[in-house]
Amino acid sequence: MAQILDSLPPEQSGKILCCYVNATSKIQVARISDIPSWYFERVVFPGQRLVFEAPKVAHLEIHTGMMASAILSDTIPCDRLALDEPSTNEFSTDSETGIDPINKKKLMQTINTKIGDTTQSFKMAGANIR
Fold first, then answer.
1. Does the global pTM surpass 0.70?
2. How far is CA 92 from CA 83, 86, 99, 103, in A?
3. Is 44 part of any domain?
4. DSSP class per residue in 55-91
5. 21 DSSP β-pair partners
6. 58-102 confidence digits (pLDDT tens)
7. How many domains, the chain?
8. What's the chain's Rg over C-alpha atoms?
9. Alpha-carbon span 55 to 19, nearest angstrom
10. Which terminus of the chain is less hemmed in, N or C, by CB atoms within 10 Å?
């Protein structure tokens, strides 16, 4: 879910949904400061995914935290961070097939059940359990 605290100016058109992942082991600050009348800044922890809306023309600055300071380590055009937004009909699932329409993978395993004697031996971590 996008965390929108500072909405874009109403005159701003062409906004896109973007995603940035901090793949480093350091805390980063993601900042957009090149859009008039709008300022975006978020702390991004190691391994965290940041999803946000921004104008296509914006640039995301990545400031990497060092001891008591931060350096500008990257500037990324937001159109390179754009997520493909699926249409609403792509979210519908076919309950009979159990297939995720986006990833084309099974959503869950089918479990076959049998009525009758269900006490069976099986091994778990090298031990017999009955």
1. no
2. 19, 11, 10, 13
3. yes
4. ETT-EEEEEEEETTEEEEEEEEEGGGSBPPPPPGGGG
5. 49
6. 999 999 987 777 889 999 999 999 987 655 555 555 544 455 555
7. 1
8. 23
9. 13
10. N
Between strands 40-44 and 49-55, the pairing is unpaired
Cβ atoms of residues 79 and 16 within 8 Å: yes
**Is residue 27, in this structure, part of any structural domain at all?**
yes
Burial class (CB in 10 A: 0-12, 13-18, 19+), 45: exposed
Looking at residue 28, its amino acid is Q
Q: Say which residues have a Cβ less than 8 Å from residue 59's Cβ, sequence separation at least 6.
A: 32, 34, 75, 76, 77, 78
Taking phi first (over 0 means left), then psi (-120 to 50 degrees means alpha), and beta for anything else, what does residue 46 get? beta
Q: What is the pLDDT of residues 7-34, one digit of tens each?
A: 666 666 688 999 999 999 999 999 999 9
Please indicate, yes or no, if residue 97 is contained in any of the structural domains. Answer: no
The DSSP letter of residue 54 is E
Please provide residue 78's backbone torsions phi and psi, each rounded to the nearest 5 degrees.
Answer: -65, -30
Q: What are phi and psi of 79, to 5 degrees?
A: -65, -20
